[in-house]
Amino acid sequence: MILTDDDRRMLDGAEGPAVAAAMDLLTRYAEALDAERFCSVRNVAGTATQPSPLKAALVAEGGWDRAFSVINLDSDETHEIPPMAVPTCQLQQGFGADAAAVAPYPAQFVELQADAETFYGRRGVSILATCTPYQVGNLPVRGEHCAWMESSAVVYANSVLGARTNCEGTASTGAASLTGRVPCWGNHHDEHRRGTHLVRVDTPVGGFLDWGLLGYFTGDVVQEARPVVTGDLALPDLTDLKHFGAAAASSGGVEMYHVPGVTPEAPTVEAAFGGGVPADAVVYGAAERAATYARLNDQGSSADVDFVLLGCPHASLDQIRDVARLLDGRRLHDGTSLWIMAPRALAAVAERSGYTAVIEAAGAKVLTDSCPAMSRLAPPGTRVFATDSAKQAHYLPAILGIEAWFGTTEDCVQAAVTGRWSGELR
Question: What is the pTM of this model?
Answer without folding.
Answer: 0.97
